[in-house]
Amino acid sequence: MRMVREAASNLDIPQVVFLTFVDECCPVVKKDLKRIYSSKMIKQAMQDCSNKLGVPMNCIYPVKNYSEEIEVNNEVDCLILDALHNAVNFANDFVRNKSNMSS
Description:
Layout: H1 2-10, E1 17-19, H2 22-25, H3 27-31, H4 40-53, E2 60-62, H5 74-102
Parallel strand pairs: 1-2
């Protein structure tokens, strides 16, 4: 995985990581998803991911999966949508920069 990421970096392709199942690594977050960004356990998991893959912390998005839920949950949806929104922004910036370079 690290080799793929490094090859993408060499091509200036932005990378993001969706850190999933964060509710399973932190009991506080499992009880209250709103505390995801204040959890030391989540921050440590993000740091471990950053160290292993070489992706900056600001490109790692903790999200909760819909794994056992029957109904949708606005807090889960907001985390996922925010992560996707940021990933799309990175991609748009990349395409815009590449198209400006070729014109």
